[in-house]
Amino acid sequence: MYFTSTRADLHVTAAQAIAQGISSEGGLFVPSEFPAVKAAALEKLVDMNYKERAAALLSEYLTGFTAEEVEYCVNGAYTGTFDNERPAPLYSLDSARHILELWHGPTCAFKDLALQILPFLLTVSAKKSAPDKTIVILVATSGDTGKAALAGFADVPGTRIVVFFPQDGVSPMQKLQMTTQQGKNVAVCAIEGNFDDAQTGVKKIFGDGGMQKFLQEKNMEFSSANSINFGRLAPQIIYYFSAYCDLVKEGKIKLGEAVNVCVPTGNFGNILAAYYAKQMGLPVKKFICASNRNNILTDFLRTGVYDRNRPFYTTSSPSMDILISSNLERLLYHLYGNDAKAAAGLMAQLSGTGKYEVSSEILAELKEEFYAGFCDEESTQQTISRLFKESHYLCDTHTAVAVKVYEDYRKETKDETPCIIASTASPYKFASSVLSAVDASVVPEDGFELLERLSAVSGTPVPLPLSSLKSQEVRHKTCVCKEKMADFIRDFLG
Ligand SMILES: *Cc1c(COP(=O)(O)O)cnc(C)c1O
After folding, report:
1. Ligand 1: distance of its center to the CA of 264 in Å?
2. Quick one: which of 51, 154, 139, 150 has its CA closest to 107?
3. What are the CA-CA distances from residue 378 to residues 63, 322, 387, 397 (Å)?
4. Which residues pair with 161 in a beta bridge?
């Protein structure tokens, strides 16, 4: 097994793919094949804990890593960093709806599952592929990636990290999480624009010749902690296997029985990890792709036309406010039979006209694997409120989108297959929206009063990583226009 690119035929190791982040011609690194987890191997995973499952699955992809190196990464990432001894526990609402809580990490969002391990994967990789170089992590964030990456990389030797976020596109709590970040090697900067502006800006900087030269002179190299990095994707595959194994262990499904997987989707990374899990042998019947009002993926998966020429909405689930879902490129590459020319062609159309259409055969395959739906702002609020009333379960806005789209799916198809529903953030991370859904009386203005009020109403504790922000100083105050992003980086790197 080796890694190639979605836009060119390459032959690189996992270490190279992870250290580099994105391929030089602009494509995304993909495995040349999917390692098979056969029934007997799946059965073995059932009796393992999360770290053991992680090591077993990751070593399938990490060609060139020794068993000790994989173990070092897994132990560093998942020992003492999550508030639960199981980093990704399941909460069953009933026999069909199993909420996969992916927010027990240090920043209270699902990205911790990958970003706690990425610094380890990246530094081990860099030692192999680019020894002595300082790795500069560039991140564009819609809110949660930024903080999770900062938490993972702060003060990691041999790395610097620069995070850009849209000034008005993240929640106050997300903003505070990022702007209070400590660490000698970190920089955080707001930009005037939305997430797509930030992401496009970062991609441009990656490909900029002048910047490359600047880095070379400093013996530095860019890498990415965005979900375009395969080192982000691989750790996300683990929790789908793990959730499945937990369901088997708890007697809720039989080994080999198919499940559905429903994911609130933005950049298509989390749901793509579930798709990868299926390619490896996880029994999944249908992927349910849930979007908010920015429903470009719903349209695409229903019609085969991807068209980003449409209004952009700021919603209460900001981590899904995305019109260019980068990881879709990987899915297209695989569906076209690992055809780099085909994927590159579609991506060229996307950057040229903002639009592309897949063939009718590909559309049929997409429909076979995926159901797509979206949930507007009002339904998001209603779903949070209803779930709390009916099941006394408090969920965040992103999770609510998934819960609602799953309900729509079930009504429409009558499919009662047990479903793993990814819960991507703690409700406390989006406390204002959540509180106004469960308690219509006056919502406090102050962020921390909000947390305490939500705690009182729901009878659940405020996560420590959020309550502790109150006493922390805001250290990052810069805001630049998108044309000035490169200058900000040069200044920071010196
Ligand atoms: C990032 C994020 C998403 C979207 O995940 P993708 O992998 O980009 O599809 C959904 N919910 C939350 C809370 C997130 O932070």
Report:
1. 7
2. 150
3. 47, 19, 14, 11
4. 137, 186
What contacts 160, CB < 8 A, 6 or more positions away? 134, 135, 136, 137, 185, 186, 187, 220, 492, 493
Token pair listed for 151 = 């938490």
State the residue for tokens 């600047």. Answer: 214
The parts of the chain modelled with pLDDT lower than 50 are none
Strand partners, 287: 261, 370
Closest Cα to residue 422, out of 50, 61, 113?
113
The residues facing 146 across adjacent strands are none
Mutational test site, ligand 1, from 118, 319, 380, max ligand atoms within 8 Å of CB:
319
202 SS3 class: helix
93: number of Cβ within 10 Å: 15
**Predicted pLDDT at 100:** 98
CA of 236 to the centre of ligand 1 (A): 12
Pocket of ligand 1 (CB under 6 A): 109-111, 144, 227, 264-270, 319-320, 398, 424-425
As a whole number of angstroms, the distance between CA 168 and CA 181 comes to: 19
Neighbours of 94 (CB within 10 A): 8
Ligand 1 atom at shortest distance from the alpha carbon of 103: 13
Q: Which helix (H) or strand (E) holds 284?
A: strand 284-291
Domains of the chain by residue range: 83-105+231-430
Predicted pLDDT at 455:
96
| Distance, CA of 180 to CA of 477 (rounded, Å) | 10
Tokens representing residue 208 in the block: 């900029």
CATH of domain 83-105+231-430: 3.40.50.1100
**How far apart are the C-alpha atoms of 55 and 82, rounded to whole Å?**
17
pLDDT, residue 132, reads 87
Q: For residues 430 and 443, what is the distance between their CA atoms, to the nearest angstrom?
A: 13
What is the pLDDT at residue 297? Answer: 98
CB atoms near residue 17 (< 10 Å):
28
